[in-house]
Amino acid sequence: MSKIHVSTSINGDAVEYLCDPSETLLDVLRNRVGLTGAKEGCGSGDCGACSVELDGRLVCSCLVLAAEAEGKEVSTVEGMADGEKLHVLQQKILDHAALQCGVCTPGILVAAKALLEKNPDPTETEVRYWLAGNLCRCTGYDKIIRAVMDAAAEMRGA
Amino acid sequence: MRFESPDTIEQAVELLNTCDGISRLLAGGTDVLVQLRLALVEPDLIVDIKNIAGMRNITAEDGGFRIGAAVSGAEMGEHEGLVALWPGVVEAMELVGSTQVQGRATLAGNLCNASPAADSVPAMVVANAVARIVGPNGTRDCPVIDIPVGPSKTSLAKGEVITSIYLPARPDNSGDAYLRFIPRTEMDIAVSSAGVNLTIDSAGVVTQAQVSLGAVAPTVLVVDDAAKAIIGTKLDDDAISALQAACSAACNPIDDKRGTVEFRTKTAGVMAKRAALIAYSRAGGSK
Asked: How far is the CA of B114 from the CAs of B9, B118, B154, in angstroms?
């Protein structure tokens, strides 16, 4: 099978890769680019653990073909921290102990960041609906929601 | 599998028309990628249409809007003019999947996937939406109601591509709404659903109406008897009861894990009743 050459941008860096036509963006991020933050939970767009932004739009990377990233801008959880300094959302997830196994956490961080870029002052209901496609089997969600609300308040104040 | 991302619709049609094996069109990919993953289909050719001019645009046209085949649900929800003109169609599309799925899923894709439970289809049908189709024999327009012919089956011929969906202009004092029943609040597939579009006069009397049902038959249903039950009324209790009864009478659902025949038949009528009341309110009627 002939491979497809893709030139894209990941977290602001120019990246090139060769991929199979049927390979997903998630597979390429994890297996070819070495960015393992995005997780495969379901592989069918139900769980949100593979969330990334594609040209600024929140998507499941398991539902994107790697070949589609040609000329696009991809943002993953690895791009959130500024060197050693965590993003406010990352710090708040830790402060609120809003994770247990951690498989859903990268997807939730990327999704919550996309929400706060669009709506810096969401209601709790808006946060819950926005994150409805990010499944967590450990926490019961409440701490996650509180962490996102707290991060939103701090980011508004900052 | 070959992956092609042509720049023109003519190239896309040529690729699809000359493919001897199985081909799939890729717009949002939220159904196609799941089918690939589950090995429900093993295509020889994938044609991504997102690089074709116009596919990602919402364009005002003759008082309505033309929605390109690769416009996502999220983009529809962010378009103020479209939300103002056809709120029921937008709310139906926005019920499909999660925020992540909304970032990719398209109206045309929801139609072509041809699920009996597709949320946007009952809403498009009552809106008299028209699909523009380009194929080996040129361009044609086809009412959305005539696209699905059964579960996972459409009336599109080999090589034909839906390039846009047109939502027409509508008279003043019109409203539309879509509701579905699911056993949770998000992330589910309709057990039953209803779309209603209506227009009222200055006295609040319904002058024209369309009523449709989803997930209660192999394809979307248009229930003329339900529309007749409310035309000429102010949606009084008798008219609403007649609409509800007509909807339940039209149902021809299956039993499955998501709902029984009896439950679907009952809830379809309830969804239609509530959707009619929302549409009436959006048209400016007060009760």
From this structure: 22, 7, 7
Q: Using an 8 Å CB-CB cutoff, list residues of chain A that contact chain B.
A: 1, 4, 21-22, 24, 43-46, 48, 51, 54, 57-60, 62-65, 67-68, 70, 111, 114-115, 129-134
B188–A contact, CB cutoff 8 A: no
pLDDT tens-place string over residues A92-141 = 999 999 999 999 999 999 999 999 999 999 999 999 999 999 999 999 99
2.40.50.100, 3.30.465.10, 3.30.70.1140, 3.40.50.10610: CATH of B50-167: 3.30.465.10
Let me know if B161 is exposed, middle or buried by CB neighbors in 10 A (0-12, 13-18, 19+). buried
Q: Tell me the nearest-neighbour CA distance from B106 into chain A, angstroms.
A: 13
Q: What is the mean pLDDT of chain B?
A: 97
Smallest CA–CA distance, residue B2 to chain A, in Å, is 6
Closest residue in chain B to residue A22, using alpha carbons only: B1
User: How would you write A8-31 as a 3-class SS string?
Assistant: EEECCEEEEEEECCCCEHHHHHHH
**Does the beta carbon of B187 lie under 8 angstroms from any beta carbon of chain A?**
yes
What tokens appear for B127 in the block?
A: 């809106």
Contact B104 A130 (CB under 8 A): no
Which of A28-42, B182-196, B202-216 has the least mean pLDDT?
B182-196
Q: How confident is the model at residue A1 (pLDDT cuts 50, 70, 90)?
A: low
CATH architecture entry for B174-282: 2-Layer Sandwich (3.30)
Least Cα distance to B193 among B263, B106, B98, B122 occurs for B122
Domains recognised in chain A with CATH numbers: 4-79 (3.10.20.30), 88-157 (1.10.150.120)
Q: Considering only alpha carbons, which residue of chain B is nearest residue A62?
A: B33
Helical (H) or strand (E) element with B195: strand B192-200
